[in-house]
Write the structure tokens for this entry.
Amino acid sequence: MRRQYSVPERLGGLGVAVAAAAVVWPAVTAGTGLGLPCPLRWATGIPCPFCGLTTAAVELTHGRPLASLSANPAVLGLAILTAVTVPLVLLRWLGLVSLPVPWSATTRRRIGLAALTAAAASWALQLHRFGLV
């Protein structure tokens, strides 16, 4: 029976996928000339909270952390979460660490509020960065 993965574990898995894509993405864009525009910015001119995240991930995986942070500092949170959860999932898979305990409703609410606050802060930063605020 497969176990359910916690939200942080899933986000860590997303971080692994983002890192893998960030390694391959520059070759795709160089070979095809295609880019990945932000749909909100393309349609309205207003950047989304995640604008620059692809660039940030590419810069980070290529060993340029300062360029990464200047593109979108939110990548740092995903990178830290990935660095913590990947070994944790491996240790859980090996049976060396116990499975996660489900969060209480209060904890889920607090984490959701923290995530919403982080997204709002990221959006404010992007609006400032693009000179819209």
